[in-house]
Amino acid sequence: YRLWLAGLAAALLSGVAKSGVPGLGILAVPLLALFLPAKASVGALLPILNAADINALAYHRRHADWRQILRLLPWVAGGMVPAFYALGRLDEAAVRPLLGSLVLAMLLLELVRRRLAWNRLPHHPAFGAAIGVASGFATTMGNAAGPLMSIYLLARGLTKEKFVGTAAWYFFIVNLVKVPVFAARGMITRESLLFNLAVAPAVLLGSWFGFRFVSRVSPRHFFLLVFVLTAIAALRLLF
To answer: How many Cβ atoms are within 10 Å of 199's Cβ, its own excluded?
Structure first.
């Protein structure tokens, strides 16, 4: 039953994150990995994210800044290729601590992002290239590129509507590309898809909750709770 509770929580958090509260979805990554093998957990989370992406597009599809997406995608592909290769080479014993380390790194990045004025970051093309490659690697290895994308878009000075719409299209494209590769690696199976189907309604509930209630809750306290839970889960993966 713990796996089902973790799956429902992961779907709920993914829906909340895609409704315009970036950073919350990072907890879904280690949550599933606590109850599934590391590679299987990454594969099981992807269709949940696909459903959340589609739901996000229903609300935000008209607000994307396509220049930012097209500028970033070639570099993202450059990060995805070695990550795909690594997934085929690494065994479970290596992927589990790697996933925990990746989540902790993204969590720290999200914490720093909230503390600093990212609009002061350089607009040099090398900055976008570095973010793109790192994002491609992180999203492929552990569906954990949200904080990196937030940093990139915030540094571009987008409005809230443009930020959410651009992120919605970006993750829809990138996560869709990952599906056939994950399936070929055996990370998405018939059983995992049935699991995804069962928890999918929680994505819609998460989106509704995000739109209706998250804005009324203290963002600082909400993020602190997610931060602590994610750190504990990631440390469990490491140790």
So the answer is: 22
**In the block, residue with structure tokens 């949940």:** 48
* pLDDT over threshold 80, residue 109: no
Beta-carbon-side half-sphere exposure of residue 125 (alpha carbons within 13 Å): 3
- The two tokens of residue 97 are 């601590």
* Nearest partner of 58 among 199, 179, 204, 159, judged by Cα: 204
Question: Per the structure block, which two tokens stand in for 58?
Answer: 């229903």
Percent of the chain with pLDDT over 70: 88
Check residue 146 and give left, alpha or beta (phi > 0: left; psi -120 to 50: alpha).
Answer: alpha
pTM summary value: 0.84
**Cα 239 from Cα 232, distance rounded (Å):** 10
| Structure confidence by residue, pLDDT tens digits, 146-195 | 878 877 887 777 777 788 889 889 999 999 999 998 998 899 999 999 99
Q: Checking phi first, is residue 100 left (phi over 0); if not, alpha (psi -120 to 50) or beta?
A: alpha
